[in-house]
Amino acid sequence: MYRRLRTLLETWLAKKVPATGLGLFRIGFGLVAFQEILFLFHFRHLIFDPLPFIDRASPVLHLFLLLWMAAAGCLALGYRTRWAALANYAFWVIFVVFTPMWQDFDGGFDQLMTGSSFLLMFLPSERALSLDNLRLKLRHSTPTRPYQPPGEVSVLAYTLPLAFSLGLLYFDSGLHKLSAEFWRNGMGAWLPPTMPYYMSALDMSPLLNLKWVEMFIGYTILVFQFLFLPLMWFRPFRVPLLVTGVTFHTGIVLSLNIYPFGFAMLVHYFLMVPFAWWRRLHTRLQHQQPVLTVFYDQDCPLCNRTVIIVRHFDPRGAIAFQGLQSQARHHPELDAIPQATLLRDLHGLDRGGRLYAGLDTYIRILIALGYAAPLGWLLRLPGVYHWANRVYRRIADNRQRLSCDAACPVPVAPAMEDAQPFARWYARYAASDRQIAQRIAKFVVLVLVLQLNSTVHYGLLYRWAGTRPVNPTLVVLDRLSDTLINYSHAFLGITPHALYLHDHFAGYHHIFALAYRDPEGRERWLPFVNREGRLLAPYWGRVQSMWANVAVTAHPSRARLEKFLGKITAYFAVRMGVDLTHADFAIKMKKIRTPMHWEKDLRRDNLAQPWRDVGTVAWRQGRVSVLLPETDLEML
């Protein structure tokens, strides 16, 4: 079996495909990571401070967040891609393992990002839509022979992330769903959007009130999750799987307030788009005729670099370049202009026959690119134009020109010392495709063993048997399996995907909200949970997970609830200008219903339930105490 796997991997390794989808996946993944790190930085006091603004986390952590944000930005741009991927992976592991993101603010999103971040360190995602490609072009091109970096990758660069990040996740999640009663009833997609803590601001009632539609969606999700991994390898099934997966995850983004997970899953589907679609899209976006023709001095190194840069950022072919030294390419519009004047600036000729020079040419280039047009319009503003023109003239008048003839160097492929450090290391470590396939096969086996350990341990034995082993030998094996899951969870993102199942919603019949009570007895609701019971934006994602999955559960722990009541009130006290030397916050509770069978208008009914006061969060001289009668917790 192992030998057959190795042979199959060697075959796939030799099959080359365009890198466009991989590049788009890298960009999308980097942007999802960037926005999540921005979220962490914005809510750093709520997430990382033991007690927000009172007992603060180390300020070095804020610096690490900024460095992590820079790494995610470089990953999205494709700048020093492998180093950025390495830094991004290291930061995911460090923050998840050593901060409250491990348990208090974890909703399953971090494991997906950790696993895909690990794979991105080894994927050649810089071969498309990257600044690294531009760096190679600038380094190895000459005026007469432009260098084009490799634009193809092994098909394994597409299939491995799909299999590990999506296929194994779906299969494990589907196995867990079979133990949940409401999933077996076909209500898996119906119940979470009816629960106030999980629903988005978009009212999905017209869809939720159609029982047959919800059953169809629920059962289709189950079937899809089990079939994705075995069918994704076959071409006829890829488009149906792509459409189904994108539809479901778009539904998650629209109907639930866990949008980061939805977007993180969606970007993986760039890897499933047929290559013919990218080619067809590229053809449709191409200009039949250039919008602008730019004439440049071929003996000017700066002008040649400008040509390479503009061409790199002009995938639609809106701009054509012609060298002034190529007399056969001269246009009649240029004949009346002295050669010295032509060589002094870049000149641009648009479709209407209008001629531009100097800064005006650059402005027209930006406008012709389309997406850069706002920058071009900005440069045309009075004051900005004159300042930019002075900068341009200083650069243009001091540039150097070369006499480039047959003595010009001939471009060569990047030498090994110019290649990415990971590529240099891996080339020495695995010099042949057979060796590379062998190492990939070992990694695949390792991942399958770790996933099997997690799925069997929690998805079958623990969830279906319902008891822990009592035999001493089995107890040791159980603890060893738990330890192994902790490591695979931290470093590869392999973890039980038992999210929002029967044991989570069963008995979840009460939710809490908070309101500040001023000395006159007037109440102001914290802008966290509103009067309907919905969690308000931007406190979604991992903050929602903290409140709805950790602080408040079907059977909340008093210690855990008190801890997060203190965190929330301390955080919002600063935002609302409340002095914590003497402040009281009312704890409000209302009943909701989470049935395992379909009910019409459940979303509306849960939002309409009344609140009642059940306790107080009291702050005195910066110290917090929670006054919540035991009877109110015991009744939950």
Structure characterization notes:
- Keywords: Membrane, Transmembrane, Transmembrane helix.
- The protein has 636 residues and is α+β, with helices and mostly antiparallel strands.
- The protein folds into three domains: 312 residues, no CATH class; 99 residues, no CATH class; 128 residues, no CATH class.
- It is 55% helix and 9% strand.
- Strands 8-7-9-10-11 form a five-stranded antiparallel beta sheet, with helices on one face. The protein has a four-stranded mixed beta sheet with strand order 4-3-5-6, with helices on one face.
- Helix 6 packs across helix 22 and helix 17 packs antiparallel against helix 18.
- It is globular and about 90 Å long.
- The two termini are 52 Å apart.
- 36% of the residues are buried.
Quick structural gist:
With 636 residues, the protein is α+β, with helices and mostly antiparallel strands. It is built from 27 helices and 11 strands. It has helices at 2-14, 20-42, 44-48, 60-77, 81-98, 109-120, 131-140, 156-177, 181-184, 205-208, 211-231, 235-255, 259-267, 275-285, 301-312, 339-344, 359-369, 373-379, 384-396, 421-429, 433-465, 472-492, 502-505, 542-551, 558-576, 602-608, 630-634, and strands at residues 16-18, 152-154, 292-296, 319-323, 347-350, 355-357, 510-517, 523-525, 582-591, 612-620, 623-627.
